[in-house]
Write a structure and sequence with these properties.
235 residues, alpha+beta, 2 domains, 9 helices, disordered C terminus
Length: 235
């Protein structure tokens, strides 16, 4: 069996290829099987790396700095993975916490004029948040393909190879003046990111608890040395 068949068609060493989703659960429609070393494993056995980068305002740079950014970014594109995608996620600014606080002030305020001013402030902030103010997050996304030549066909080796590609991107983007986020607990960070993307509205008011990945692992009975390869996301 070829490496391509191992990755895209057949069983992969160290990965549970027989797991079943719970009936009527979100696992039946979320196309994700696992998160291993910061790499997303899909149900059809593709391996995807998501890297978040902080933006810079290109137009505020000097002409020399702009040329440097263009040069290094073009250099990176020449060696970037073939499947590279650049994704920008735009969301309305979450002002619910601020509005709730202002409503609490309104409820505790005795002065009628002050209450009117607070009401005006709430209306203005609500309008701005709904129609004008947005936040932007920037990601580069790529998946494993046989040309990357991992040292073997195991999950750990493939994840390591994708993380090496992420390090290459980090070096080039750093030369462009772009900061690439490098979270300490990368599996938790990816899980939280996927949660926010799949639950855009709920994620604004319900945050995942700290250590949620360890909680999921414990629930499914995977401990110790097995956790690195078998903490099943979709099980």
């Amino acid at each position: 069996m070829s490496l391509k068949e191992l990755i895209f068609g057949g069983k992969i060493a160290g990965l549970d290829n027989t797991q079943k989703e719970y009936a009527d659960s979100i696992q039946e429609w979320v196309p994700i099987k696992n998160i291993i070393d910061g790499v997303v494993v899909t149900n059809d056995n593709r391996f995807v790396k998501i890297v978040e980068t902080m933006p810079v305002n290109f137009h505020l740079k000097t002409p020399a700095e702009q040329q440097t950014i263009i040069y290094y970014f073009a250099s990176y594109l020449k060696i970037a993975p073939k499947s590279l995608q650049i994704r920008v996620v735009t969301q309305r600014l979450d002002m619910e916490g601020y509005i709730k606080k202002m409503r609490d002030y309104h409820a505790a305020e005795d002065n009628e004029r002050c209450r009117e001013m607070i009401e005006d402030n709430i209306e203005e902030i609500t309008y701005i948040a709904a129609n004008e103010v947005t936040t932007h997050r920037f990601f580069i996304i790529f998946e494993y393909d046989p040309s990357m030549k991992a040292r073997n066909s195991t999950v750990k080796a493939i994840a390591q190879r994708l993380n090496e590609e992420a390090d290459v991107a980090r070096r080039y983007l750093d030369l462009c003046g772009l900061e690439v986020l490098d979270p300490e607990y990368v599996d938790n960070a990816v899980l939280e990111l996927l949660y926010e993307m799949l639950n855009k509205h709920t994620a604004r008011r319900v945050r995942l608890p700290d250590g949620v990945f360890d909680m999921v692992t414990a629930i499914h009975g995977v401990y110790g040395s097995e956790q690195a390869t078998n903490n099943n996301f979709g099980e």
